[in-house]
Amino acid sequence: MDAKRSERLKQWDKKYIWHPFTQMKEWRQDDPVVIERGEGNYLFDTKGRRYLDGVSSLWCNIHGHRVGILDQAIKNQLEKIAHSTFLGLSNVPAIELSKKLIELAPRGLSKVFYSDSGSASVEVAIKMAYQYWHLEGFPRKKRFLKLNNAYHGDTLGSVSVGGIKLFHEAYYPLLFKTLRAAAPYDYRDSFKGSEREYAAYCADKVEKVLKKSHREICALIVEPLMQGAAGMLKQPKGYLSLVRGLTKKYNVLLIADEVATGFGRTGKMFACEHEKVSPDFLCLAKGITAGYLPLSATLTTDKIYNAFLGAYGDFKAFFHGHTYSANPLACAVANANLKLFRKEKTLEKLQPKIKLLSRELEKIRHLSHVGEVRQAGFMVGIELVKDQGTKEPYVLAEKRGFEVARLARQRGVMIRPLGNVVVLMPPLSIRPQELKTLCQVIYDGVKKATER
User: What are residue 92's phi and psi, to 5 degrees?
Assistant: First the structure.
């Protein structure tokens, strides 16, 4: 692209666009990167500069960009139909995808409800859980239990069950009331003991709320294994299964939000598999289409589904839907995505790369302003601190994480931090040498941004 057109696009961007999670005053003063194309694990901007996609285009790209089998799946479907409503009709790719998802999902999940974003998949689970208990004759069960530091999306329902003050505080007057339990954060907890003991300690905090209020709680919502937007906070081994046991004990539904953790990010297809947990709801998005098109799904059980069955006049149907629910193009590429997982043995090939990533992260752990490095498969959070001894964090306004991202961008690596936490979540297709490059660039960036 010629330089004049590239500059013109940037001017139009600043004049017409409002970007998400972005302070637009700073954006308009900056020199934004405008992506024009992608190839493999790389992004290319309008000036022809190449960037390694270190966060999978916001945690959704799986196999890289411009993957032949995925491109072709969309082209093939486009020759048939791009979209038709899913209200009162069905379509071939959605039916095929539903079967595949249920075959892959934890045992007990048997029905699929489609929407178009991670936030929407959580909204669906919230509304289903709420209505389920009313249909079953438990009108008191209308509260949700959430964890500190939780992030489940940006619609009002998903924000209500979120727990990140920075993101959610402005909207508190609009939200429905919830109950809250402390979430695991080993680095900043004062607990002393083994990982197993810490898991029990954290689960006990959940049980205290359930024991007191279970008669009014319809569901507990969790991000299994890793709380993503909180800064990649990893749960201790055993915590998820303990929490699942508590929801059964106190007759509360479990919503597992795997929008970020699903589709191989933690080393297994779904994070719940690590502890053989089968939730009542499984929320999926991001990697479901390998990062190609918007699509989400909420999986649930026959028990939940059957409660909504009845004659038309009973008005027990689930009154919720989206115009682009089960969009045929999105479902077609999702089917191709799952086919590619099998064909390329993606999860099997991922295991040695996870070990390589762990080894490369060891170098970063020893930097003087790295408080903790948290890893679950290909999900990584590097927490930067002002003082290792006291664990004093940097003031957010100093933007240390963003400085690391800026330095990485100068060296052809694209990442996006979460405050003082540098986040890495590369495509599963990343090559070993690219993984080493990613970690070396981050090592150098952290060192330069903090040791000054």
Answer: -60, -50
Mean pLDDT within 147-171:
94
CA–CA dist 211, 222 (Å, integer): 18
Is the distance from CB of 285 to CB of 295 less than 8 angstroms?
Answer: yes
pLDDT of residue 2: 86
| 3 state DSSP class of 345 | coil
Residue 136 CB coordination number (10 Å)? 12
pLDDT at 54: 98
Q: How far is CA 185 from the centre of its chain?
A: 18
Task: In the chain, count H helices and then E strands.
Answer: 15, 17
d(CA 271, CA 256): 9
CATH 3.30.450.180 fits 33-66+345-450, yes or no: no
Q: Beginning with the edge strand found earlier in the chain, give each strand of the sheet holding 281-284 in spatial order.
A: 109-115, 296-301, 281-284, 253-257, 217-222, 143-147, 179-181
Q: In this model, does residue 452 exceed pLDDT 80?
A: no
Please name which of 301, 291, 303, 266 lies closest in space to residue 378, comparing C-alpha atoms: 266
Q: How far is CA 31 from the centre of its chain?
A: 28
Q: Cα 440–444–446 angle (5° rounding)?
A: 115
Report the phi/psi class of residue 234: left, alpha or beta, with left for phi > 0 and alpha for psi in -120 to 50.
Answer: beta
Read off the pLDDT of residues 64-110 as tens digits, 9 standing for 90 and up.
999 999 999 999 999 999 999 999 999 999 999 999 999 999 999 99
The pLDDT tens digits of the residues spanning 189-237 come to 989 999 999 999 999 999 999 999 999 999 999 999 999 999 999 999 9
Strand pairing report for 35-39 and 42-45: antiparallel
**CATH architecture, range 71-344:** 3-Layer(aba) Sandwich (3.40)
* Residue 257 token pair: 């939000």
Whether 33-66+345-450 shares its CATH topology with 71-344 is answered: no
Q: What is the 3-state secondary structure (H, E, C) of 202-215?
A: HHHHHHHHHHHHHH
Query: What SS3 class is residue 273?
Result: helix
In the chain, domain spans: 33-66+345-450, 71-344
Q: Compute CA distances 209 → 204, 244, 312, whole Å.
A: 9, 14, 38
